[in-house]
């Protein structure tokens, strides 16, 4: 039997059904976009390098490094909320690579008037996406505002804040202490940041611990948002969501809730997303946006299981006269879920479980 | 009762790794055959829930980032150079040294020309000089860095300095300290989610040992 547990197509189809069931419409993006679109919003791209080429009319085109920009560009202002999902390839230089890669992703965007329900629905769909892939998953949730509230109150300039987020992203307690000392932060802010570096666990449990912290007003508003979100996520029946302030993906891009998903057995996160109102506003659209993408390249180990054999059965059929019998024999094995190779000569260079010879109207083992 | 999960630990080959194993043993994760010279590749103590393997020090973050190891110990120099996406949970306070700019004792920086810098750590060197606004040309070497300024291949070097003895023997001096270095306990981000209790317990035990040593 083939050893593959789940196929890429099965996952795509499950995700599409899931998103359709909550009223998200499929969205198809052109493979190419004008380079200007990406050049204009380069700061919002996960990968700053873009594959370009000249079109037949001389326009500089790009193989899309991102889908979200195209979705926002095409979102109609006529309906208050634009909900779409897509299955697309993007072209990026991976963080750990030095050449362009084609990265298949499935994503979902909710653009327009984003309230509590829309945010909760997108987080729920992110969690359910993970659940569609494996029952053993964790979705880590954070809110940029909790940390930036502390940094803003301490007078840390926006250009210095990424350093704090990087240290937080590595859960690096000693480096956080050193950084706070370098910026001469007051004891209460230091202790809050140290606590956020360590905090990790189920949302309700962490929210209880957060409520004991002397946080500034801006952080408290973000905590309240997380609390309201938690109530709705519970109503959706979700329990595998953790609060983790090391989820700080891209603070230039995200401005509110931010989340990332893991599947047991896979070495990196397979899903990431969050609220990205700044990009929407930069593109002169009203409202905000929240969305996520599932990176199919990271899921590859799930369906790439090394088969013990190339085929289960090899049917060697030296004479054309015996082919009808070989075909019937092959059908019988295929119906039993086995893979079959029929050939007229001895198999070489392949591995197989069983070999039969079809000769003189009989099947011999 | 939930099943205790095994933690895969990447130890850096060499003296530092042996010290790290000593700390692990003290923390209750003993597996004496780790120090056995037999040519075995992995060492396991199921009762303690731990599996060790030795790898080249600069490869530890790769094993951890890619999930082949759940945790490992790597020098801050390697972490700064390669910026792996891992959690840096603990400063073990061992393997202490400094990342320095070193050069001939008589070195004077002529800012009217590009500074030639030989190093095994091009990323750290570039970042340091960028912060100074100094234009440099990096010469990436893989060993015997000290010889570069002596033979005129470079003006200065950026390298790890422990005692400064090797530099002195070659007529060089540590001119500036870029960053202090020590060994760090790192964890794979996905492993941290699914082996959270085990990794946290290991980190806390090691932290307690570090504190008694201070």
In a nutshell, what does this entry contain?
Chain A is of the alpha+beta class. Helix content of chain A is 38%, strand content 25%.
- Taken from the alpha-carbon principal axes, the silhouette of chain A is elongated
- CATH class value of the domain at 311-364 in chain A: Alpha Beta
> For the report, how would you describe the main beta sheet of chain A?
9 strands, mixed
Q: Which structural category fits the helices and strands of chain A?
A: alpha+beta
Mean pLDDT of chain B: 92
Cα-to-Cα separation, first versus last residue of chain A: 19 Å
The largest β sheet of chain B comes out as:
6 strands, mixed
Oligomer: heterodimer
Number of strand segments of chain B: 11
Helical content class of chain B: 25-40%
Q: Indicate the radius of gyration of chain A in whole angstroms.
A: 26 Å
Structural class of chain B: alpha/beta
**Strand elements of chain A, count:** 16
What do we call the CATH topology of the domain at 311-364 in chain A? Answer: Rossmann fold
Largest sheet, spatial ordering of strands of chain B: 2-3-1-4-11-5
CATH structural architecture of the domain at 311-364 in chain A: 3-Layer(aba) Sandwich
Q: Please state roughly what percent of the residues of chain A sit in beta strands, choosing from under 5%, 5-15%, 15-25%, 25-35%, 35-45% or over 45%.
A: 25-35%
């Amino acid at each position: 039997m083939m050893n593959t547990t789940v196929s890429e197509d099965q996952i795509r189809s499950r995700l599409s059904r899931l998103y359709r069931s909550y009223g998200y419409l499929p969205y198809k993006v052109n493979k190419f976009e004008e380079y200007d679109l990406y050049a204009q919003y380069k700061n919002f791209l996960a990968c700053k390098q873009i594959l370009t080429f000249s079109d037949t009319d001389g326009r500089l085109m790009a193989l899309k490094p991102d889908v979200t920009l195209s979705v926002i560009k095409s979102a109609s202002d006529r309906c208050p909320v634009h909900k779409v999902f897509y299955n697309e390839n993007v072209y990026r230089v991976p963080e750990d690579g030095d050449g362009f890669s084609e990265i298949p992703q499935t994503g979902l965007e909710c653009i327009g008037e984003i309230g509590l329900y829309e945010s909760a629905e997108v987080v729920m769909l992110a969690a359910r996406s993970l659940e569609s892939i494996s029952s053993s998953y964790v979705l880590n949730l954070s809110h940029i505002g909790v940390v930036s509230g502390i940094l803003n109150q301490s007078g840390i300039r926006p250009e210095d804040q990424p350093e704090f987020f990087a240290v937080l992203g590595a859960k690096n307690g000693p480096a956080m202490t050193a950084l706070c000392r370098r910026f001469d932060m007051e004891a209460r802010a230091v202790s809050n940041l140290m606590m956020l570096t360590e905090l990790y666990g189920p949302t309700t449990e962490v929210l209880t611990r957060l409520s004991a912290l002397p946080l500034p007003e801006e952080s408290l508003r973000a905590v309240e948002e997380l609390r309201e979100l938690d109530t709705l996520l519970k109503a959706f029946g979700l329990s595998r969501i953790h609060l983790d302030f090391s989820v700080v993906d891209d603070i230039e891009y995200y401005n509110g809730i931010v989340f990332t998903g893991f599947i047991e057995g896979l070495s990196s996160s397979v899903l990431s997303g969050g609220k990205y109102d700044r990009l929407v506003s930069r593109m002169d659209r009203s409202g905000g946006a929240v969305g996520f993408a599932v990176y199919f390249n990271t899921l590859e180990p799930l369906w790439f299981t090394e088969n013990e054999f190339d085929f289960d059965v090899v049917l060697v059929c030296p004479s054309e006269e015996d082919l009808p019998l070989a075909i019937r024999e092959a059908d019988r094995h295929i119906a039993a879920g086995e893979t079959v190779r029929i050939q007229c000569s001895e198999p070489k260079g392949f591995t197989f479980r069983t070999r039969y010879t079809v000769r003189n109207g009989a099947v011999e083992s | 009762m939930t099943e205790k999960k095994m933690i895969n630990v990447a130890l850096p080959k060499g003296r530092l790794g042996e010290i790290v194993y000593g700390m692990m043993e003290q923390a209750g994760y003993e597996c004496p055959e780790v120090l056995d010279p037999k040519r075995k590749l992995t060492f396991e103590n199921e009762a303690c829930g731990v599996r060790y393997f030795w790898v080249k020090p600069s490869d530890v973050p790769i094993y951890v980032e890619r999930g082949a190891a759940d945790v490992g110990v790597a020098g801050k120099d390697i972490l700064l150079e390669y910026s792996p996406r891992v959690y840096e949970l603990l400063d073990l306070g061992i393997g202490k040294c400094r990342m320095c700019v070193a050069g001939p004792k008589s070195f004077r920086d002529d800012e009217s020309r590009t500074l030639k810098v030989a190093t095994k750590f091009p990323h750290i060197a570039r970042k340091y000089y960028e912060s100074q606004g100094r234009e440099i040309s990096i010469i990436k070497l893989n060993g015997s860095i000290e010889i570069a300024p002596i033979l005129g291949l470079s003006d200065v070097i950026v390298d790890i300095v422990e005692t400064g003895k090797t530099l002195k023997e070659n007529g060089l001096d540590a001119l500036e300290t870029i960053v202090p270095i020590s060994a760090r306990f790192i964890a794979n981000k996905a492993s941290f989610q699914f082996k959270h209790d085990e990794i946290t317990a290991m980190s806390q035990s090691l932290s307690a040992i570090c504190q008694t040593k201070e």
